[in-house]
Amino acid sequence: MYQLRKDLTYGGYIIDYMDLNTSGIYAIRNMINEKVYIGSSTNMYRRRSKHFSYLRNNRHCNNHLQNAWNKYGENNFGFEVLEYVPEENLVEREKTWITNYSNEVYNLTEVVEKEFRLSEETKRKIGKANKGKVPSEEAKQKMSKAHKGLRPSEETIQKMSKAQKGKIVSEETRKKISKIHKGKTLSEETRQKISKANKGKKLSKAHKDKISQKTKGKNNPHYGHRHTEESKKKIAETARRRYAKDGHPWLGRKHSEESKLKISQTLKDNTNRIAQRNKLQLTLW
After folding, report:
1. Strands across the sheet with 12-14, in order?
2. What domains sit in the chain, N to C, each tagged with a CATH number?
């Protein structure tokens, strides 16, 4: 499909796969309107495979290029080498090609060292175009399908965690989240995954204290609530079914001596506390 030949339009080459295992500047070219997407890579063969895989699966990060691909079809696009470049000069040469290319390009980002960021102008355009828009159910399904199976890197997870740290979710947002998840039931597969992910994890003392403090007294979402008789029956029935299938979680297990001492001490403390409270109440009367 790709033969080595000179492209007189801007001095590039349409080349065979063997010539791609090296660094350089490349273009994905629309043969209909001569518009191109310009990029750089240390291995153009791998980069070409990745681009075309994303485009064929409607998952390319560049919407302009993806829309053009969907409109004109794969047969009207070619992968071309513009220039063979050593790795240390890739960024500089890519900037030059994008800046000096005579026809319009599909590129949306500025090239910054080995990272890419949206230009301020592009950010404003995207923000303006999406302002007030609510994705349709079809669009939501497409986005969900596109991201299915993708797992962010550890670095990305750390960045997201840092960005969310210290943020307080408003009451309105909490209600919205609650409404979205109301009535949803986790599948058995999802439950198993969550169980497996959390298996063996132990919370630190500080973490436990934080949870205890946040859910104490009026902060507890169940504060002042009482189960209805119907709810009690449902809970009991669920427990019966679970125990009938898997057995009681404590069946056959025995407390260690240390656990027994802790339980004994806790019961004594509770008894003493109740006695002191009753004594105080009698004194006040």
Report:
1. 5-7, 12-14, 77-84, 24-30, 36-41
2. 5-119 (3.40.1440.10)
| Residue range 12-29, pLDDT digits in tens | 444 444 455 688 899 999
Residue 183 per-residue DSSP state: T
Cβ 23 vs Cβ 44: under 8 Å: yes
Long-range contacts, stretch 193-202, CB < 8 angstroms, 24+ apart: none
Q: What is the pLDDT of residues 107-164, one digit of tens each?
A: 876 565 554 455 677 677 777 877 888 888 888 887 777 677 667 777 778 888 888 8
Distance CA 41, CA 80 (A): 13
Query: Residue 230 corresponds to which tokens in the numbers above?
Result: 């119907």
Distance CA 96, CA 43 (A): 20
* Integer Cα distance of 108 and 143 in angstroms: 20
Give residue 37's pLDDT.
Answer: 93
Which position has the token pair 């609650």? 178
| DSSP β-bridge partners for residue 194 | none
3-state SS string over 227-269? Answer: CCHHHHHHHHHHHHHHHHHHCCCCCCCCCCHHHHHHHHHHHHH
**121, 61 contact by CB (below 8 A):** no
Q: Using CA of residue 124, residue 128, residue 133, residue 136, what is the dihedral sign?
A: negative
Bin 132: left if φ > 0, else alpha if -120 < ψ < 50, else beta: left
Q: 12-71, pLDDT tens digit by residue?
A: 444 444 455 688 899 999 999 989 999 998 888 888 889 999 999 999 988 899 999 999
**Residue 4 three-state SS:** coil
